[in-house]
Specification:
This protein has 4 helices and 2 strands; from the N terminus they run ααββαα. The chain is mainly α.
Length: 166
């Protein structure tokens, strides 16, 4: 192909179009997130129980741990941001919003487990495993009630209260 003075404007328009297209596509693509998933997490705000200097990666791992321990998803505690849909058409979440009562419960439970570990577990010699959400929840939003099994092999000690009574 021979470039002439007449074809220069067409070539310039094509190049300019390509540059504008590339710049627009790059500006609209979310930066890679944790694990290169292409998910962009905004800087954490409205932190009330987690450290203010927590990184996005640490926060994401913490939230995944809590969700897995309770068998839930992000939408359990985080409200949708109205009018802010993601590329999949689903609403993005407003992580700073405190309108869901489950979020307040999660904060309270986090403080409880932190207190149990600091004030009790840490004082037990040889206790190496801290209490976590999963200690009680074991993958369920509401912990399953524990029923003490009937004593089949150990009758109550002489003079002691009958089984189940104290």
């Amino acid at each position: 192909m021979k470039i002439t003075s007449q074809s220069l404007p067409s070539i310039a328009v094509c190049l300019l179009t390509a540059v504008v297209f590339a710049a627009t596509a790059t500006a609209q693509a979310p930066p890679p997130g944790p694990g290169g998933q292409g998910m962009h997490m905004p800087a954490p705000t409205n932190l009330k129980v987690l450290p203010k200097n927590i990184t996005n990666e640490q926060l994401h791992k913490t939230m995944e741990g809590w969700a897995g321990s309770l068998g839930v998803h992000c939408t359990t505690c985080h409200a949708a941001a109205p009018g802010n849909a993601g590329p999949n058409g689903r609403p993005r979440l407003n992580f700073a919003d405190d309108s869901k009562p489950q979020k307040a419960t999660a904060r309270l439970m986090f403080k409880m487990t932190k207190g149990i570990n600091k004030d009790y577990v840490s004082k037990i010699e040889g206790a190496e495993k801290p209490v976590t959400c999963g200690t009680c929840h074991r993958g369920h939003l509401d912990p399953e009630p524990f029923v003490i099994p009937e004593e089949e092999h150990h009758p109550p000690a002489a003079g002691g209260p009958p089984s189940g009574q104290r």
